[in-house]
Amino acid sequence: xxxxxxxxxxxxxxxxxxxxxxxxxxxxxxxxxxxxxxxxxxxxxxxxxxxxxxxxxxxxxxxxxxxxxxxxxxxxxxxxxxxxxxxxxxxxxxxxxxxxxxxxxxxxxxxxxxxxxxxxxxxxxxxxxxxxxxxxxxxxxxxxxxxxxxxxxxxxxxxxxxxxxxxxxxxxxxxxxxxxxxxxxxxxxxxxxxxxxxxxxxxxxxxxxxxxxxxxxxxxxxxxxxxxxxxxxxxxxxxxxxxxxxxxxxxxxxxxxxxxxxxxxxxxxxxxxxxxxxxxxxxxxxxxxxxxxxxxxxxxxxxxxxxxxx
Length: 310
Known about the structure:
It is built from 9 helices and 17 strands. By secondary structure, the chain is of the alpha/beta class.
């Protein structure tokens, strides 16, 4: 097996909310593609120190460590090399970035990222940047109550909503999904359901149960944009990576009122599994917005919850 190369990389944002990309030289590995600035972590070097050094050498900027937070860790294996990308979100920096090594730079809006080509290892980073950090999961409600629930969830800090309505017939769930997507056109609305039905209804964001995840061999059969899955074990995480899921929820992190008999994994195990995953990972189970900072510091994508948004 090839030696693992540890890389510190940054998603750097300016005051306008634009993201800085750099173009790799064609002579480099994965040359001619856009990337997130950064470079190799030297043996014995602390990753944040490596990030600060690389960004000074590449871009001529000094990052504000107090405004630099973990975004995602991505272990990735190319045919000829293996890399571990330690990616941070940099919200403040000093200096004017320029390509000190002659590399072209570009400030990009997040909505325009799909127009750029990245190395395969960067796909989870792009997804992490575009996905929200606070995901509300709907409780059991009457069909007429869901719009009101979403309004209140947004007021409490939710940034996206997963429609989980197993008590309704599948046709009713899909009709409700379409109604919510039309009522909240700027909101990411995810349906927790089956792939075949999602394709028929042209659902753009689908979440699979762990059972449905393990039955799926490839995401290529799904025609929507976002595909997520529920995971509880390392085996399920590996399957989600294998099929090309865009994100996962990992549960239960803490004890839940709905399943008091289930032993939670705790934050240490959540952090361990996040480090093993190459996907954005939401903490689920007994969590709230008060746990968001701990989730982000563990390298997670954010929190997914029901009760704290009710």
